[in-house]
Request: fold
Amino acid sequence: IAGIFNVSSADTSLMKALGKGKVDAFEALPIKTECQGLDIIATKAGRDHNPVDVIGGRSVREFPNWAEQRYDRVIIDSPPAGIISDSTVLAGRTAAVILVCRLHKTRKWALRHAHRHFNEIGANVIGVLVNGVDFKKDLTVNTYDYYAYYNTDLPKTK
Reply:
């Protein structure tokens, strides 16, 4: 996220603020972007704090509450569900979860496993977002495979 918006996360890192364990540290995190009404909070892994210790800390429980008091919408981008348990911890503290997968890369069993896992912990899974769709090609509709459909022969609407 920091790379997309060309901001440095060295000084205002979420991981550093969570590691301090103080809600006051959150105030310095929001970075204004060129998009009106969009602030981001970047993070950078550091040697100061062990991410496993931080994710289980009290400040991780307090951060979503802090953000919800200041913003209309809060979106948390977490590491992949199957690799690191951060997404599981965060999912239990959010109103909704959107699973993100990549077309022709994400295995169906992995997506089903993640969905089942989030349901088991009581997370509210509201949908699946599919990255890597090439809308220049026709794709087959199949509700079981989570593929998108786009037909280039359809008339364009104004």
